[in-house]
Amino acid sequence: MNLIFLGPPGTGKGTQAERISAELKIAHVSTGEMFRQLANEGNPLGVEARDNYWGKGNLVPDDITIGLVKERLKKDDCGKGFILDGFPRTIPQAEALEKIVKINYVIDIESSDAIIIKRLTSRRQCENCRKIYGIDVPPKLEGICDVCHGKLYQRDDDRESVIRERIRVYNLQTKPLIEFYKARGLLRIVNGESPIGQIKADIMKIAKK
Questions:
Q1: 155 an active-site residue?
Q2: Which of 35, 139, 50 has the alpha carbon at shortest distance from 87?
Q3: Is residue 109 a contact partner of residue 194, using CB atoms and an 8 Å limit?
Q4: Residue 38 pLDDT greater than 80, yes or no
Q5: Domain containing 74 — which CATH number?
Q6: Which one of 13, 36, 72, 124 is the catalytic residue?
Q7: What 3-state class would DSSP assign to 111?
Q8: Domains in the chain: how many in total?
Q9: Could you give the C-alpha distances from 178 to 16, 112, 156, 175, in angstroms and in order?
């Protein structure tokens, strides 16, 4: 089962991908997390991507992202399937992906701008294990990770000014993917403003078909 999760930033794609990948026993492939990890390690590619692109709300160039994803999908944990979270984001990326692997369904998780901004500005991530917390999944102790007790922090790309730019870029460059995948009969739409458990249930109904 190979799935793509689409939707504006802040619609819960990462949270749902994490939960559903565990239930279906398939890999969760997040390009955003891959770039963040590289940046935190001081990798030149990751630092360049952060300082010049995603740290400012802009997309990383297609050739860099496509190459990264292509190598990631070769790993053993993708053998039984995967969920792509954050890729593709442009038509050229989608066209390149078609040459690499077959996709079963594209899940579009929709939400309003107001809800997205509220969710993302309240989001925090653990500096150690990378677990994400927010309105739907708050930590038991404010500022402290439930899993490893690491310190929680606000990511650079979760500041309101960056969020608004990310939404603008999504509408300009990524939203056309909806029509791209609709024309191929792969698109399925899920209400991203439903309770988190209902969103998961709605996606699982699609996956089990």
A1: yes
A2: 35
A3: no
A4: no
A5: 3.40.50.300
A6: 13
A7: coil
A8: 1
A9: 19, 16, 27, 6
